[in-house]
Amino acid sequence: MLLFYILLLLIGFSESREHEISINEETPINTIIFDLNSLSSSLITYQLLESSSLLYFNSTTNLISISKRIDRDTLCPNDDLCSKCYLTIKLYDMFYYDILLLKFQINDINDNQPIFSSNTYSISLTENNMPGMKIRLSKAEDIDCLINGVQLYELTYVYNNRVIISSINLFHPQKQNQTNQPFYLMYDINSDLYLIINMSLDRELQSEYIFTITANDYKYTTSTKLTLTVLDVNDHNPKFSQTIYTVNISYSTPIGTILTKLTAYDADSEENAHIYYSLLSIDGYKLETNEKNELFQLNSYTGELSIISKLNHLDTKNIFKLVIGASDGTHNAIPALTTVYINIQNDLLNDNQSLIQLTFGSNNVSKNFSEVYISENLPNATFIAYIKSNSNLQLITHEGFFLQKLTENSFTLLTDRIYDREKCSSYNVHLRNENIERKFQIIVTDINDCKPIWNSSILNIDLDLYIQLNEPIVLTLNATDYDENSHVGYRKKKYIMATMDNINIKSINIKLYIRI
Ligand SMILES: *[C@@H]1O[C@H](CO)[C@@H](O)[C@H](O)[C@H]1NC(C)=O
Ligand SMILES: *[C@@H]1O[C@H](CO)[C@@H](O)[C@H](O)[C@H]1NC(C)=O
Ligand SMILES: *[C@@H]1O[C@H](CO)[C@@H](O)[C@H](O)[C@H]1NC(C)=O
Ligand SMILES: *[C@@H]1O[C@H](CO)[C@@H](O)[C@H](O)[C@H]1NC(C)=O
Ligand SMILES: *[C@@H]1O[C@H](CO)[C@@H](O)[C@H](O)[C@H]1NC(C)=O
Ligand SMILES: *[C@@H]1O[C@H](CO)[C@@H](O)[C@H](O)[C@H]1NC(C)=O
Ligand SMILES: *[C@@H]1O[C@H](CO)[C@@H](O)[C@H](O)[C@H]1NC(C)=O
Ligand SMILES: *[C@@H]1O[C@H](CO)[C@@H](O)[C@H](O)[C@H]1NC(C)=O
Ligand SMILES: *[C@@H]1O[C@H](CO)[C@@H](O)[C@H](O)[C@H]1NC(C)=O
Ligand SMILES: *[C@@H]1O[C@H](CO)[C@@H](O)[C@H](O)[C@H]1NC(C)=O
C-alpha cells in the first residue's frame, strides 16, 4: 500500500518534464505505446494525476497502452494540418518529485474517403451569360488531414460528342494546358472550387449539361453528378451571412439551449421565408436527409441550432465541426454552406461542477469520495490529493494537512505531520471555492507500530511477601496493544527464570521459583 503514496518535497515543483510520442490513429486497442521504464535505469513509481480515457496506465508495469479506439478525425476534426491533436497523461514521478507530462501526438492515416454533401446537384443559369462565369461548387469533405484529404478533382462531361476531362490538382494547381474547353475546374487561393463556364450558353442549342465531378484522395475516389439547366429567367442560390460560426459551450450546457441562429439570405428576394436549413455533416460524417442525430438539432425553418443531449460522457471531446447547408428548397440546388465550430470548454470558471476537481493519491477511497484511507507512519508531507481549481481555492480546516500551489490552476494537498492513528485517527478536510465546497475525511489506517504493554510491572513485586523456598510465586499479568485488532501473544524469552502455563490470549500466569 505504501507504494500508492507520494512524499513530495517542497522544492522542484515548477519542474515539469515533457515527452512527446507520436502514434497513429486506429492503432489497435491494448497496443503498448510507451514504456516509462525506458526513461530511467532505476525502477520508479509513478502516480497518475490526469489521463485521457483512451489510454491506460498500468502502475504495476509502468506501461501505457491504448484502451479505446483512437480516431483522430473525430477527436480533432478541425485540425486539418494534423499539428495539434494530442492525448496527454500527467504523472507524478515519486523518485525525482516532479511532474512528467507525456504528450501523444496522434498521426493521421488515410482512413476516410471524400464525401460530397449530395449525390446530385443541379444549377440553373440564364442563357447569354458572359464567358468565364464562375460557379462555386460544393467541395467533397474528407475528414482526414489535408495530406490525406482530397488531392485531385476531375470534371467529366460530353460536349459535341467528345468526352472531355478537366482535372485540377489542389497541391499543384498549375495552369491548364488543355485549351478549347467549354467548361473546366478552377481552384482559387481561398480554397474554393469553381466551375468555369468558358462559353456563352444558348438554350436553343443545348438546354442541359450533365457533369461528373470526382474527388480523389489517392486512395479513395467519390463522384457526384451536377446538372446544369439553361434557363431564360434569373434564379439565385442563397448565401450565409457568415462562412464560419463559432460557439463556446461547456459540458454542463443544459439540454435545449439554442447555441446559435444561422441566417442565410436569398439574393433574389428580400424575404428569407423559403430558405431551408439542413445539417449536412458532423465531424465530417455525412448525415442523410432528415437523419436525426442525438446531439444537435437544427430547426430547418429558423436556422436555430440547439443541443439535445448531455455531453458529460464525451470526456475526450473538445470540438465539433458541423457543416450546414441553406437552399431555397425548390430543387436540389447547390446549397450555400457554412461551418459551425462548437468548442466544449472545460473552463474552470464556467463550469461550477469542476471548480474543485480531486484526484486522490490513495488507492483506497470510499465510493462516495467522503472517506480517504491513508496509512499511519508515512513521512511528513505525504501526498493526499491533486486538486484542479483556480486561485480562489481555500482550505477551511487546517488540522493535519496543508495546501501547496503547483500551477495557476492546480494544487496538492499534503500531510503536515507523520500520522499516528493512536493519537488521531481521522482529519476532516473542507475545501471551498466561492460557492463550491468539497468535504472529505482522511481516515488513518493502522499499522502494527505499538509495543504491547504489561498491565503491571514485575519489578514492583515485593519479594518479602512471597518468599518461600520451592514454592512458586504466581503472577497473573496481561498485556495490551493500542493497535487496532491486535492480538498479543506471549512467548518465553531465554534466560528468564520463569515457566509459563495457561498461555491464552487474555492473560498469562507466570510461576517464579526463587533459587538460592
Ligand atoms: C497490469 O500489469 C500486470 C502485470 O503484467 C497485470 O497482471 C495486470 O493485469 C495489469 N493490469 C491491467 C488492469 O491490465
Ligand atoms: C498537358 O499537356 C500534355 C500534352 O498534351 C499532357 O501530356 C499532359 O498530361 C497535360 N497536363 C495536364 C496537367 O493536363
Ligand atoms: C476558353 O475559351 C477560349 C475561346 O473558345 C479558348 O481559346 C480557351 O482556350 C478556353 N480556355 C480554356 C482553359 O480551355
Ligand atoms: C470562445 O472562447 C475563446 C477562448 O477560449 C474566445 O477567444 C472566443 O472569443 C470565444 N467565442 C465566443 C463566440 O464566445
Ligand atoms: C455557478 O456559479 C455562479 C457564480 O459563482 C452562479 O451565479 C451560478 O448560478 C452557478 N451555476 C450553477 C449551475 O451552479
Ligand atoms: C480500505 O481501508 C479500509 C480501512 O483500513 C479497509 O477496511 C478496506 O479493506 C480497504 N480497502 C481496500 C480496497 O484496500
Ligand atoms: C459515504 O460512504 C461511507 C461508507 O463508505 C459512509 O459511512 C458515509 O456516511 C457516506 N457519506 C455520505 C455523505 O454519503
Ligand atoms: C511537516 O512539513 C511541513 C512542511 O514542510 C512543516 O511545516 C511541518 O512543520 C512539518 N511537520 C513536522 C511534524 O515535521
Ligand atoms: C493484570 O491482568 C490480570 C488479568 O486480567 C489481572 O488478574 C491482574 O490483577 C492485573 N494486574 C494489575 C496490577 O492490574
Ligand atoms: C488487562 O489488564 C488491564 C489493566 O488491568 C485491563 O483493563 C484489561 O481488561 C485486561 N485485559 C484482559 C484481556 O484481561
Oligomer: single chain
Ligands bound here?
2-acetamido-2-deoxy-beta-D-glucopyranose
Report low-confidence residues grouped into runs of 5 or more.
1-15, 348-352, 495-505
Q: What is the CATH class designation of the largest domain?
A: Mainly Beta
- Strand % is 35-45%
End-to-end Cα distance, whole Å, is: 54 Å
- Chain-averaged pLDDT: 80
GO cellular component, one term: plasma membrane
Pfam families: Cadherin
Protein name: Cadherin domain-containing protein
GO molecular function: calcium ion binding
Please describe the structure with a list of short key phrases separated by commas or semicolons:
mainly beta; Immunoglobulin-like; 516 residues; 5-stranded mixed β-sheet; 43% strand; 2 helices
Q: Your description of this structure?
A:
A hairpin with a 5-residue loop joins strand 22 and strand 23. It is elongated and about 140 Å long. Residues 1-15, 348-352 and 495-505 have low confidence and may be disordered. It contains two helices and 38 strands. The two termini are 54 Å apart. The protein folds into five domains: 17-107, Sandwich (Immunoglobulin-like); 115-231, Immunoglobulin-like; 237-335, Sandwich (Immunoglobulin-like); 349-447, Immunoglobulin-like, CATH 2.60.40.60; 453-513, no CATH class. With 516 residues, it is mostly beta strands. Helices cover 2% and strands 43% of the residues. The site of one 2-acetamido-2-deoxy-beta-D-glucopyranose has 5 residues, from loops. One 2-acetamido-2-deoxy-beta-D-glucopyranose is lined by residues 364, 373, 445.
